[in-house]
Amino acid sequence: xxxxxxxxxxxxxxxxxxxxxxxxxxxxxxxxxxxxxxxxxxxxxxxxxxxxxxxxxxxxxxxxxxxxxxxxxxxxxxxxxxxxxxxxxxxxxxxxxxxxxxxxxxxxxxxxxxxxxxxxxxxxxxxxxxxxxxxxxxxxxxxxxxxxxxxxxxxxxxxxxxxxxxxxxxxxxxxxxxxxxxxxxxxxxxxxxxxxxxxxxxxxxxxx
Length: 208
Hints:
Elements: E1 3-9, H1 16-19, H2 22-25, H3 27-34, E2 37-39, H4 62-66, H5 71-85, E3 88-98, H6 100-111, E4 118-122, E5 138-142, H7 169-179, E6 187-192, E7 195-199
Parallel strand pairs: 1-2, 1-3, 3-4, 4-5
Antiparallel strand pairs: 6-7
């Protein structure tokens, strides 16, 4: 029967095998439990092993950015090939990513909102060069306030080797609140031990 599809994208200098390690991310066990297809693509790497790979997420990162790699075209082709082999629910295609992979998820939201139902990013803000989504798309962003690589309030942290300052979390969220035409006032829906979650609703097409 038609089954949901999730792309999960590794971080910069990572690879598909690291992202697929269930000990770290639990993506495979969750897909088995919930009943969806999970795919682990590999970004661009100068090594035959595919390690130390990156995604062209706009202003970041690595060889993928330097070579202006068409990673959006790559994902489109993957969806086409997977759809020829598997019964995929075209209304439930999603992407998530870690760091550079999260940034790439934002690029997919900008350029493929007609394909992806929603994206989620962990520790990766929206560093796209241009963003004019044709339709609204739901966004989930997860970020630690003490992230020393990609600072919550923007810029490059002391553990970052990137020369491009990263967009801040508040600016990324504000951008998508505007793009999705949400109510500008969020609702605090969770708070515990220093962690909190804010939800923006009343958006176009009922996205969040």
